[in-house]
Amino acid sequence: MAHQLGEPEPLDPRFDRSAWWRWDRFGMFIHWGAYAVPARGEWVRSYERLSVADYQPAIDAFNPNPDFEAWADTAQAAGMRYAVLTAKHHDGFALFDTRLSDYSTVHTLGRDFVAEFLAAFRARGIKVGLYFSLLDWARPDFPHFGDLHHPMREAEEYRGYTPDLDSYRAFLHGQVREICSNYGDLDVLWFDFSYPGMGPEQWGAADLIRIVRELQPNAVLDNRLEGSGPEPGSILTDTPTPFCGDFTSPEQVIPAEGIRGADGTPVPWESCLTLNNHWGYCRHDADWKTAPVLIHKLVECVAKGGNMLLNVGPDAHGTFPAQCRRILAGIGEWMDANSASVRGCGPAGLPKPDWGWWTAGGGKLYAHVMEDPVGPLQLQGLRRDRIAEVHLLSDGSQVPLVDAWSVADHPDQAFVAFGPQPEWTYPLPDPVDTVLEVTLR
Ligand code: GLC
Fold this sequence. Notes:
The strands form 3 sheets. The chain has a 7-stranded parallel β-sheet. The chain has a 5-stranded antiparallel β-sheet with strand order 8-9-10-14-12, covered by helices on one side. With 441 residues, the chain is of the alpha/beta class. It is 24% helix and 17% strand. The protein starts with 18 loop residues before the first helix and ends with a strand. The chain folds into 2 domains: 329 residues, Glycosidases (TIM Barrel), CATH 3.20.20; 85 residues, Immunoglobulin-like. It is elongated and about 80 Å long.
């Protein structure tokens, strides 16, 4: 479906709920819990076959004093406009006040970290969401032996073990009811995740979505009541289920192109990415992505019509690792000058240029120039007679179209130069991503 150059492609009205989310484009994911104590990632129980008893020392030692205000300041300074915290991960240890279990920080520490997180981020006008694990490896009624991921999946003492899925569903629905009832309006609900053997039927997804929509009609929901990172579920089909979610959630990857449904129209999507290679705090993982790379990936997501949810894993004290803060500060510095080319933007309807990406929003086109030109830069995809003016987004300065003998054989194409001599080669004003705001005639 062709659309007006510079204007967003229309989406199916069923996605109207996520309009603010698609505007904001850039969010913070926060994976935090008792798994920060072993500091080997949030799957430590599964990977190391740790029983509930083996894991208890981590629960006992988890006594953090997080500065949620600092968390919110860091997110805001990075240009993130929504944030999603793990209310409960697969280990089953809750950061919220639950009456259905004593396996929570309210019972061990008297602290409702979810309530504190929501207050601090809401106070800054940052939209808030909760991640909630559909799996719970601490529950006796959850499948153990033979499950695909459970820590006891191969433990002989659990061979023949009989789970009680009716009991588990009642518990799961009860805790979802708690988080949807006791914490005000949630902007995002991020369920995780379905896999072979444990999916919508086992979760009771048809009933669960009724609870969610009754209590949180406006919350933007992911697709993992029936999907996972690689499995989008029915949201992309022409027969979406009531629990298909409002967006699909590719994980640790940016889709080759934007994501479209069976009818060819865009479907909202969000790539969730880690800063290193772990969601939960992992002391030995120093393979950090850099701010320039993540700026490029954020722009790529927007240029393809998606969001980026970038994860931080606070340590056992509740502190963001210093390297995370440095990376996010680097992203924030670029966003301070260029967020207009991300927020409220999406695909421009132009072919991908050699030098980077086009985004568009608010009737403007944005050239994200990430590769130095030789000589004048060609605004690839745009005829010269379509352009009224070009400005450097970061300082508003005019960047005039130029005539250069070196490109005289392309009189209908648009070229700009970053210095006085149009044929000369000049360094990009911003070596990471120089954004040009293009106003069309
Ligand atoms: C995967 C991981 C889980 C993480 C989620 C974030 O499902 O298993 O630990 O919370 O991705 O998208």
